[in-house]
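Appendix B. Chain record.
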Amino acid sequence: MIIVREQCLRGRVFAILALLLCVSLAGCGGTSSAKGVSSRGSEAFTRDTVRLASSQMRALTDIQQRTHSAMIADIMKDGVITAQEMNDLQRQQMDCYAAAGYDILYDDDLTATVIPRNANVDGETEDVARKCDTNQGFADVYNVYFEALRNPDARDLTSATIQCLIDNGLVDKTYTKDEYERDSENRTGPYTPDPETGGVNDQVYTCGRDPLGNLR
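Structure tokens predicted for this chain:
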């Protein structure tokens, strides 16, 4: 998720764009803090190379056709997204924000906090986010990369998530897809939010984010 924050003295935080695709409530229930590097840094977050399944390749093709990005076109040539390619796209995003007068902080799952250096840039934020995220395609490509990393065979993740919930004793063995869709949509059952944090149980979050165990 991209979060834009006013100058630290103001402290108001509001969401602008989703960096990671929330595949279910379980995928959105965790909390994270901006503890990564800023746009002045150079640390690489992506360290794995992934091969794309056909459905993931089609998604990448759609992104390239929308953005007309030469970098994404290069990625598509071999059906593989390397760590270097993902990090080059990230640095392009960082440089774009820096040139527009923003610092960007990433946490471990690339959720990002964008901080304007000038307190008077509120009206420009959406335009900058559109330029540096939507138009360049980093957020969308990262969604494809993340999906390939956690689901390399493009399996049905709904069934895998339900099985993960059953295996961890969070629901009984009779738990159905209809019950899962109802609970994840209505925040009931295992998706009932914690009254203090507003998030879901850590294991429920893990089952939604990584039901096949490929991110461990």
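Further analysis of this model is presented in Appendix C.
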